[in-house]
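quick one before i forget lol
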Amino acid sequence: MNERHVLELPDALKDQLGVKSGEQVEVHLGADELKIAVPKPVEVRQRRWGMIMLTFLMSCVFLGYFMVRKIYQVSLVGSESVATMVLLLTTLSGLLSFMVVFIRLKRQPVPWLKPFLGETCQRLRWLLR
């Protein structure tokens, strides 16, 4: 249930949460607790440039393949066709984007794991990075 309510917070609490007046926050009510969370901004530009670069790279590979093989008329079906190249290049771009995201996420610290593992988290740091 997404209801919108106006909540007035004291200035000290606003400073502690890093919230400005008029900014939206998420409030979760529990049995005996109240959680106030500030939604994190999404880095859309960085992801958008990655997808643009990946699309450009795959288009260059597509054109380069047919130019090197001196195929100037590309069929729609067959072993050297648009359909085959689309399947191949989408698989390749999916693999590349998965590898980039996986490596980026592996390099980030894992603070949520520390309460569960405690000191073992420090010993397994080589596995998490």
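fyi The first helix runs from residue 11 to 17.
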